[in-house]
Amino acid sequence: MERRYLLGNEAIAHGCLESPVSFVSGYPGTPSSEVIEVLSSLPDRSYYAEWSVNEKVALENALAAAWCGVRALCTMKHVGLNVAADPLMTSAYTGVTGGLVIMSADDPYAHSSQNEQDSRMYAKFAQIPCLDPSTIQEAHDMVRDAFSLSEELGLPVLFRPTTRICHSKGDVELGPVLQNTRKGEFHRDPRQYVVIPAHTRILHRKLNEKQPKVRKRLGELGYNHAVVKGSRAIVASGIAASYVQEVIPDNVSFMKVGAFPVDDEWLADFIRIHEEVLVIEELAPVLEETVREVAGCVTVYGKKDGHAPYEGELSPAAVAGIMASCGFTPSRIFPDVSPVPDLPPRPPILCAGCMHRPVFYAIRKVFKDGIYPSDIGCYTLGLQLGAVDTTICMGASITVGSGMVHAGEEREIIATIGDSTFLHTGIQGLMNAVYNDARMTVVVLDNRITAMTGHQPNPTTGLTACGTPSAPVSIEAVCRACGVGFVETVDPYDMATLTTALKDAKERPGVKVIIARQHCVITARRAGIRRGRYLVDPETCTGCGICIAFGCPAIERHDEKASINELCSGCAVCAQLCPAGAIRKGGAR
Amino acid sequence: MTGGYDIMIVGIGGQGTILASNILGGACLIEKRSVRGAETHGMAQRGGSVESHIRVDGRHGPLIAPGTADLLIGFDMLEALRYSHFLKDGGRMVVNHHMVIPTSVYVQKLPLPSEEEIISQLAGKDLCLIDADAIAREAGSPLSANVVMLGAASHHIPLAAESLLLAIQRLVPPNTVVINTKAFELGRLAGQTC
User: Fold this and answer.
1) Phi, psi (degrees; rounded to nearest 5) at A561
2) Same domain (yes/no): A419, A458
3) pTM, 2 dp
4) Is the complex ipTM more than 0.90?
5) Which of A74, A163, A514, A542 makes a 20 to 30 Å CA pair with A502?
6) Which residues 18-77 in chain B show a CB within 8 A of chain A?
């Protein structure tokens, strides 16, 4: 046994190695990404690992692996599970022979997400088990156990950590890493794997028949447990159970649920020996609804009666507040303090030298009255530059744009989408826009990497997850194959060419695509690319503020003059914008 | 009240808060003590304000509640002020005497407190200001400022300096062990006198 201080996702990856896992696929998404980053970067791998192009693709790959009898892990963030929902729902019908663990990382408070959906609802919807860890140690143990559980039940298992598990750290006890010795082999069985109506009706009945066994086995696993101490009880799940343990007094009973669905009888036996029960969980009232179903005349407090919030994340202090609101006295009192008001915010910002910034700047110049549907990536930060009007989900820049065109919107539509997002679900929208003859411009922000989630490679990068060279996909050829007549590739650091390309696109009918290609400034730096820094000649600077408005974090204003700080990466875009010619190369980097 | 020692490390994405938190966690393991931590990952790291929570002897959740931290290590003065309400009454604050001005100040022309104003707003705290950037340069690399800060704060951290140093030597890139060892020692010296 070894004890290490690990990030939750590192502990989860290690749990997979202990199982051991044979096949790993997924699509990057905060807070899930580090699991595959760890598994794909280890030397001497005895398993296969890939970044897939989207979550549906990833899950279908992993499902096939599990059909072939090997243990498969598929990772994604909660909204990725929406993309993978189609195979998910029917995978419960077909079942698996090798263990299939689907990790869907939820993000209460939407730290880096577009919504706060609760993946446990998907498990209930699909009628598959869901494991919901309350600590990093438990996350590690659960994922290790999930593979054998999946094999035993013949069902995919949904593993659902949250941000405060994935991106928290703790001392974790690890087991030995095992070598994968399984080799996939498919055994033909059309009644199991061809879900035509005649087969699927039977498979649905079999899935329903499995449910009592699922509840029983989950109860035996040991992730649900209870201690009786008085007439009042707190029932909690996920990381919120850890917060409860910090503030629960000695005379209050405690039940922790880590495995869903809960055994109704066991739950009812516990609830009914109490007078009042408080349910503490983040996001949807999944556990609370189950408690209310069995509560009888026991008083239940939670979200549904307004004591606990449906949105945001909890904390020990928030749990103490909820307890106090329904007459439970927490063991700890938290000070009532508030932050210093009116400090200038420091939100995340596009890096100095980021290729997205000049593109947004040029779009705003050329398409002054345009509408700017955008997508999900670092470039969503283009919002700060006034160049992002809509973001809904992966791939929805082009589709939202074409929808607006056909709804009658007459202003110019300029959609922006990153390389990885374009390959994820952007291509279908482009094909549709061409097919239905939308008049719009699409700018593919191609920095050859999935940057926002931590620079994972994608099919444009030329490398697989494990670093093996692969032929880069041609976005130009994809666009032409979709029927786009105007496809121009430009260097976004070259403002004149970029602007000309946008103006050309503006004059033409139909769907036009401009591919703005430049390496992500972070990956370029890591690859050793050094451009000289730029500086402002204070004598020539007129203080017009054009470079300041560009919004680069390397440009500062002091005494009404611009200056350039050490963040400058040498992209030279500001030098092209300066009407006084006051910015020039100078100083080494 | 929790029986543990709660440390906040705050700064700007890219300043090395995560390595600092790993060093503290590593030192806890060396002393066979439990530890919990929480930190900012993902897009928030792009030059944004970041916070790491480290709970020495922590046994439950990773989050430190506002008003309860024993120690706050600030890699930037403005960020130290932004998170100062996390500190408990009488808590220690070790802050780098340096401020990166947020781009929002230039672009949106927002008011910014001066260094003097920040210091006066922190007047009620047990504040130790360290010129970590200068000390890091003296140690051999400006990138070692995070380790300088740990050194300066180490007098108040209930972990042996030897454990912290051993964790540093295990966790920094091998070719920077000498620089970071010096950075820790110089930071520790500077922290002694404030």
Assistant:
1) -120, 150
2) yes
3) 0.96
4) yes
5) A542
6) 21-22, 25-26, 28-29, 33-49, 58, 60-63, 65-68
